[in-house]
Design goal:
With 480 residues, the protein is α/β, with parallel strands linked by helices. It folds into four domains: 125 residues, Rossmann fold (3-Layer(aba) Sandwich), CATH 3.40.50.2300; 170 residues, Rossmann fold, CATH 3.40.50; 71 residues, Helicase, Ruva Protein, domain 3; 70 residues, Arc Repressor Mutant, subunit A, CATH 1.10.10. 42% of the residues lie in helices and 14% in strands. Helix 19 packs across helix 20. It is flat, with a radius of gyration of 28 Å.
């Protein structure tokens, strides 16, 4: 599938930056120096998927009745393309004007290639998403010819993940080559949301990309050796220090150090981390002098750091130094519309042949709460596609892999004979407490509904006005 972009910008250098960023991502790009030039182009608006337009573009003879730039632009390029307005502090068109008139994004000059690429990728992913017209049909995915190329791709097109894309672009722009201070980032989010992936993306698109990316899980640092591991030690600094050792911070000099689970770091290490962040100086254990290092620091945590500070477990000054640029990753349940995109992404990575997910399997994946977030989804998809016999994945293939549905597949859990036996066991007992009796009534209703529908979970759940995952969860709670 090819994607076509149009760039309307009178400044040659700005137009070149946009063109090069888009071409690097596989877009076919056409250029125009004004709206009038674009209107006269032979390949008409039917081919455009994305349009980057300068906020000061002019169109004198056409559509004088249209007061907004985007309204005039739509007359030239049509209603289908996504529009990104490129403006500056002097532009008449403000970001609010752009969004209110239907722009998909607004970039402020000077713009970077990273910012352009992130914006364009979001548009491309929306186009690749399963359309509303395709609902009710299975999802068919062809395997990727190069799975490694997509290993650092942050996938999604929902509003919460678009917000992350924009934060990334803005942060990378602010920490570009013109900034001499070593930047620090704080990435927060639940376990499995992709914090290390984002950290690696930041490294890959930063001025530290040519250096090492050194990842440390702070929860695994032993208290007595934490300082030595991070900052190194001199010969004879302590018992067992039989030679001089360079620490991980020195190893990351000129690159990036990723402090995962920063709140789990030994408490005595926090003031030393603060000193390194503030001064850029590393002192090995037992040394008499410090070493100057230039390291980009990215910390991550699945905890609420403000709660940790209030509880006295984390230094407030360290938090402020780490969170110069803060990015919060949404839980998967907060961006369920991205699940088909993620399923296709992981299926392409792990499948060695075309794979088809039934609509029922997709619905189940979209309804599940995903306590393990994207990491759990990746594991489920990987197991489903690698263990599929004929390349087709059905609802029952997914059920056994979801944590709170384990043991409740339609094939082996709901025979009518079993249901009759269960109903006999759930008769009310006058000696039970009110809570137990209410629980017994609920379980009886659920099981009787299953019997009426001959063990069909989908129909029973619909009859009770709930989704299949909710039905399974309720049944497990009632029987526990």
């Amino acid at each position: 599938m090819s994607f076509h972009a149009l760039v309307i910008e009178k400044n040659d250098s700005v137009r070149r930056i946009i063109r090069e960023a888009l071409c690097a991502d596989g877009w076919q790009v056409a250029e125009a120096c004004s709206l009038e030039t674009a209107a006269a182009m032979p390949d008409n608006h039917c081919s455009w998927t994305l349009v980057f337009c300068a906020a000061d573009a002019e169109l004198k003879e056409v559509d004088l009745s249209c007061t907004s730039l985007i309204c005039r632009l739509r007359r030239v390029v049509g209603n289908d393309p996504s529009i990104v307005i490129v403006g500056s502090d002097e532009s008449v068109v403000t970001p609010l004007d752009a969004f209110l008139n239907g722009a998909s994004d607004y970039l402020r000059k000077p713009i970077s290639k990273a910012e352009i690429a992130i914006c364009a990728r979001a548009v491309m992913q929306r186009l690749k998403a399963v359309s509303k017209e395709a609902e009710g049909h299975p999802l068919i995915i062809n395997p990727s010819s190069n799975s490694q190329s997509s290993s650092l791709e942050l996938v999604g097109a929902s509003e919460p993940i678009i917000k992350v894309f924009k934060q990334l672009a803005q942060s990378l722009e602010k920490t570009g080559n013109g900034n001499t201070r070593s930047p620090s980032f704080l990435i927060t989010g639940e376990t499995g949301t992709g914090k290390e992936l984002v950290a690696r993306l930041i490294h890959q698109h930063s001025r530290y990309r040519d250096g090492e990316f050194v990842a440390i899980n702070c929860s695994t640092l032993p208290s007595e050796l934490a300082e030595s591991e991070l900052f190194g030690h001199e010969l004879g600094a302590f018992t067992g220090a039989v030679k001089t050792k360079k620490g991980l911070w020195e190893a990351a000099n000129g690159g990036t150090i990723f402090l995962d689970e920063i709140t789990e770091a030994p408490s005595q290490l926090q003031p030393k981390l603060l000193r390194v962040l503030q001064e850029g100086l590393v002192k090995r254990v037992g040394a008499t002098h410090s070493l100057q290092v230039d390291v980009q620091v990215i910390a991550a945590s699945n905890r609420d750091l403000k709660t940790e500070i209030d509880a006295g477990r984390f230094r407030q000054d360290l938090y402020h130094r780490l969170s110069l640029y803060q990015i919060h990753l949404p839980a998967l349940r907060e961006r369920r519309e991205d699940i088909p995109l993620l399923v296709a992404h992981f299926a392409r990575r792990y499948a060695n042949r075309p794979v088809q997910f039934s609509q029922e399997a997709l619905e189940l994946l979209k309804e599940y709460s995903w306590p393990g977030n994207v990491r759990e989804l990746e594991n489920v998809v990987r197991a489903a596609v690698t263990q599929s016999i004929d390349g087709r994945v059905f609802e029952t293939d997914i059920l056994s892999r979801l944590s709170y549905m384990e043991g409740y597949s339609q094939q082996n859990a709901f025979s009518c004979d079993d249901l009759e036996d269960n109903l006999k066991k759930t008769a009310l007992d006058e000696d039970f407490s009110l809570e137990k009796q209410v629980r017994g009534v609920k379980l009886r209703i659920v099981q009787e509904t299953l019997m009426r529908h001959k063990g069909n979970v989908t129909r029973a759940a619909t009859a009770l006005g709930m989704t299949r995952p909710t039905f399974y969860k309720l049944l497990k709670e009632l029987k526990s």
